[in-house]
Amino acid sequence: MSIQLIALDMDGTTLTPSLQLTERTIEAIRNTVDRKVEVVICTGRTLDELQDVFMDLPFVKYAITGNGSAVWNLVTQQKIYEDTLTFEQTLQIMQLLKPIDLRIEAFADGKAYISQHCYDRPIEYGAGDFADFIIKTRTPVPNIHDFIIERKLPIDKFNLFFKNVEERAAMWDQLEELGYNITTSFLQNVEVNSSTANKGNALRELSNSLNVTFKNVMAIGDAMNDLTMLKFAGLPIAMGNAVPAVTEIAQHITDTNSNEGVAKALEKFILK
Question: Which residues are CB-neighbours of 73 under 8 A, at least 6 positions away?
Fold first, then answer.
């Protein structure tokens, strides 16, 4: 198997628990690209949230963001594929969420928008250890409901953080019944995309544009939102800290993101 394209999840995979890239990981990715293997960042994040990553990885040309709602050419800063929610779908979702006190993050135009009160009180709205990250990367607006309706933004993804598990479970079921693609990357969140937007479909689109078959694709991930890209890849690799559903479909399990699992996988399969 000759690997020509590698998809790397970010949080829980390429980044350490403190959201950093180690020197060993940067070097392994650089050496992989030097061997004419394309690397694509494949994440639930927005483009804006990845700016620090791009500074450390200027040799990476592609990014899949919003759980597969967009594929970006990082050289031209242009989208080469997108799968957003329609405005009617956005209105339907917002109507369901209106009675609930939660943090709504709307991903659009490469940014993550949230209501000002959630931005001002991140801990109360489920940020936990990521409070500083939220303040650094989110764009606050007076009211997220009004903002979306007035601007009629094409939404890549909704990232929803609930205050209690019962509301989260009920909303998950409602949205799934309506046909949306529902996944999660944290215990308390729900991520909502169009029915066809996922990392696997976006990776397929990028692979086709690069004339790379699935057999020559390697993917590394840890969470439920990585399942579709791992199922697409000819060589699916799970992190040592991955959820059971990911390890079950992996051909190889590397080390954890605390112990440079991505670097070790690249060294084993590409740089050996």
Answer: 61, 62, 79, 80
What's the CA gap between 181 and 4, in Å, rounded?
28
Encode pLDDT of 183-212 as tens digits: 887 778 899 999 999 999 999 999 999 999
State which H helix or E strand residue 228 sits in. Answer: helix 227-232
Please count the residues of the chain: 272
Expressed as residue numbers, the domain containing 242 is 5-82+197-269
Q: Residue 7: beta bridge partners?
A: 40, 219
The Cα–Cα gap between 127 and 118 comes to 9
User: Residue 17: what are its φ and ψ, rounded to 5°?
Assistant: -60, -25
CA distances (Å), origin 197, targets 7, 47, 69, 95, 229: 16, 16, 5, 21, 11
Structural domain total, the chain? 2
Looking at the fold, whether 210 and 242 belong to one and the same domain comes out as: yes
Kind of pairing between the strands at 70-73 and 217-221:
unpaired
The answer to whether residues 197 and 239 touch, using CB atoms and an 8 Å cutoff, is: no
